[in-house]
């Protein structure tokens, strides 16, 4: 008899009889704690299970997953094996989960390469920004990829998948490829030049596959569908209020992966918040730029009237919505998170951040006046054109924030934490052609920041440069990486990174080739299969504008050069 594997305290799971229904396993290739923090995963689960003729269950990588023992991975709702499902839907938020993806296929005794699977094997469908910006590194493992937002694709996708168990695999793939926004990798092949760059992309269907967008967010909701205490955001009900970002920071997937900017109206947001109150009295607002919502003051007032606690993701320093910040503080939240990206005004100007040095003091003063006890500030190292002077300006700005926040709060020990990430050039952003800084350089920059700021009582938390380099390698990768990903998935943790790099070298490739090489505008890009129709030309124009902004800034402010 099968048993349910629902974690203690979880609410919201849907249990259905399989009779006459299409079974779909919705899989996040990481732990339950991480996967259930994905609003996209929760929203998809809710949408699939609104269809009476579909039964959707969840699966995650077990916390105690042992590469040697390879335990069978089971769904939470019915305890079934993944091979029992005709469709496996993988949701990718981050490229760094590619190793876990391969591990899960192996553990499920499913042939990793799509070409080796038969009509009796599950169809492997993937989606999410961790794959649709550039699916090529794991394309040989996938039967289909949903390119862009899932809502416009779900209905036609389900129409085809209902026949997955009674039609030949190739027929299903052909029908999937006919759906706008569905990329079927097996219908495309690549030829490479002697220097390892992409030569030609040959497709049996049109190219590129067009990214799909849900144009009216007010026709559906994107909210938590579970109470999941054992997840990162398990104490709150997440509510998406908008998609896209008009600032268009040149490194940002949240901007270029989700254009154009759309928002939900205040009535819709408040209705979503009310529905979550049956589980949580804590609402987390989700958006690339919460402060830019045109009705953010009304949303803040409405949430305060509901009496819920409010949390927000990283806030832009400009504009900083005072009413929302005060509403967040009034519910007892002690930490405010600010996104600066760089302490250098020149670099912020270059990447189109839209934040000036003069914007910092008012933001710090507001945080202190609202009673926040901790400021968390996001920065980045390794941006193109970054110099030691730019790092010194980050140190100077962080020190200023610490001093001003301490003085304004009257607490000498007022806490300031810097979260410093490493720049990763992302496919389908204007900086997709830029090189990533070498790992030793990134390590040196992080060490330099710590050595100057930690003596001042500022905690500096940095990304792993080695894992950031792997992310950049995947982000700008191609299909030749798939065998290396599969080989590396046999190793745990950091050992997998080394195994991947060695496997690439055996093929005459390297992470330097993918991550740390400046690319020419004329070079063919592996992800052109799923670009926007004018994607490369549009992104090239944005990159050229960024370079021009940088040059104008240097001319106007010689001291910054």
List the helices and strands and how they pair.
Elements: E1 22-28, H1 32-35, H2 39-49, E2 54-60, E3 87-91, H3 98-107, E4 123-127, H4 129-132, E5 144-146, H5 154-161, H6 169-177, E6 182-183, E7 188-192, E8 198-203, E9 237-240, E10 242-243, H7 253-256, E11 262-263, H8 266-276, E12 282-286, H9 296-306, E13 309-312, E14 315-316, H10 322-330, E15 335-341, H11 345-350, H12 360-369, E16 374-381, H13 388-409, E17 415-422, H14 439-453, E18 459-462, H15 465-475, H16 482-488, H17 493-506, H18 511-515, H19 535-556
Parallel strand pairs: 1-2, 1-3, 3-4, 4-5, 9-12, 12-13, 14-15, 15-16, 16-17, 17-18
Antiparallel strand pairs: 5-6, 7-8, 10-11
Helix pairs in contact: 8-9, 9-10, 12-13, 13-14, 16-17
A few lines on this structure:
The protein has a domain at about 20-205: Rossmann fold.
- Strand-pairing-aware structural class: alpha/beta
Widest sheet: strand ordering = 2-1-3-4-5-6
Architecture per CATH nomenclature, i.e. the level-2 architecture of the domain at 22-203: 3-Layer(aba) Sandwich
Radius of gyration: 24 Å
Largest sheet: 6 strands, mixed
Q: Could you tell me the mean pLDDT? A: 94
Account of the 3D structure:
This protein has a domain at 22-203: Rossmann fold, CATH 3.40.50. 34% of the residues lie in helices and 15% in strands. It has helices spanning 32-35, 39-49, 98-107, 129-132, 154-161, 169-177, 253-256, 266-276, 296-306, 322-330, 345-350, 360-369, 388-409, 439-453, 465-475, 482-488, 493-506, 511-515, 535-556; strands spanning 22-28, 54-60, 87-91, 123-127, 144-146, 182-183, 188-192, 198-203, 237-240, 242-243, 262-263, 282-286, 309-312, 315-316, 335-341, 374-381, 415-422, 459-462. The strands form five sheets. The protein has a six-stranded mixed sheet with strand order 2-1-3-4-5-6. Strands 14-15-16-17-18 form a five-stranded parallel sheet, with helices on one face. Strands 9-12-13 form a three-stranded parallel sheet. Helix 9 packs parallel to helix 10 (322-330), helix 12 (360-369) packs parallel to helix 13 and helix 13 (388-409) runs parallel beside helix 14 (439-453). It is globular and about 70 Å long. The termini are far apart. The model has no long low-confidence stretch (mean pLDDT 94).
């Amino acid at each position: 008899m099968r048993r349910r594997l629902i974690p203690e305290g979880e609410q919201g799971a849907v249990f259905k009889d399989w009779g006459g229904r299409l079974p779909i396993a919705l899989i996040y290739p990481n732990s339950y704690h991480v996967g259930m923090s994905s609003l996209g995963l929760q929203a998809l689960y809710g949408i699939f299970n609104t269809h009476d003729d579909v039964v959707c269950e969840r699966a995650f990588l077990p916390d105690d997953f042992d590469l040697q023992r390879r335990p069978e991975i089971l769904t939470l709702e019915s305890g079934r094996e993944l091979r029992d499902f005709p469709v496996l839907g993988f949701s990718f938020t981050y490229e760094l989960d590619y190793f876990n993806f391969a591990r899960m296929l192996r553990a499920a005794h499913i042939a990793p390469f799509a070409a080796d699977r038969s009509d009796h094997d599950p169809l492997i469908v993937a989606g999410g920004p961790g794959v649709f910006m550039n699916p090529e590194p794991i394309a040989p493992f996938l039967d289909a990829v949903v390119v862009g937002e899932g809502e416009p694709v779900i209905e036609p996708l389900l129409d085809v998948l209902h026949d997955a168990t009674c039609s030949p695999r190739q027929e299903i793939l052909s029908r999937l490829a006919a759906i706008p926004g569905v990329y079927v990798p097996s219908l495309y092949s690549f030829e490479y030049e002697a220097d390892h760059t992409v030569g030609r992309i040959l497709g049996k269907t049109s190219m590129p596959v067009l990214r799909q967008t849900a144009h009216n967010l007010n026709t559906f909701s994107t909210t938590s569908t579970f109470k999941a205490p054992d997840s990162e955001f398990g104490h709150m009900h997440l509510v998406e209020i908008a998609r896209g970002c008009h600032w268009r920071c040149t490194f940002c997937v949240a901007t270029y992966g989700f254009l154009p900017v759309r928002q939900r109206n205040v009535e819709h947001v408040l209705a979503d918040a009310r529905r979550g109150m049956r589980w949580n009295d804590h609402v987390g607002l989700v958006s690339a730029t919460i402060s830019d919502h045109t009705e953010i003051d009304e949303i803040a007032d409405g949430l305060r009237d509901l009496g819920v606690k409010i949390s927000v993701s990283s806030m832009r320093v400009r504009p900083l919505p005072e009413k929302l910040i005060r509403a967040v503080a009034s519910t007892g939240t002690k930490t405010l998170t600010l996104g600066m990206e760089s302490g250098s005004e020149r670099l912020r100007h270059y990447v189109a951040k839209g934040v000036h040095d003069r914007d910092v003091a008012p933001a710090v003063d507001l945080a202190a006046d609202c009673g926040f006890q901790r400021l968390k500030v996001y920065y980045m190292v390794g941006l193109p054109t970054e110099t030691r002077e730019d790092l010194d300006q980050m140190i100077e700005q962080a020190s200023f924030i610490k001093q001003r926040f301490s003085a304004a709060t009257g607490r000498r020990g007022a806490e300031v934490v810097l979260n410093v990430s490493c720049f990763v050039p992302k496919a389908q952003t204007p900086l997709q052609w830029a090189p990533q800084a070498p790992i030793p350089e990134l390590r040196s920059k992080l060490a330099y920041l710590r050595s100057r700021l930690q003596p001042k009582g500022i905690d500096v938390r940095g990304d792993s440069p080695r894992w950031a380099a792997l992310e950049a390698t995947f982000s700008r990768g191609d299909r030749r990486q798939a065998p290396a990903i599969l080989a590396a998935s046999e190793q745990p943790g950091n050992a997998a990174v080394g195994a991947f790099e060695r496997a690439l070298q055996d093929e005459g490739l390297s992470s330097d080739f993918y991550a740390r090489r400046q690319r020419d505008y004329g070079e063919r890009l592996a992800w052109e299969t799923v670009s926007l129709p004018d994607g490369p030309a549009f992104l090239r124009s944005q990159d050229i504008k960024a370079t021009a902004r940088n040059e104008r800034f240097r001319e106007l402010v010689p001291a910054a050069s």
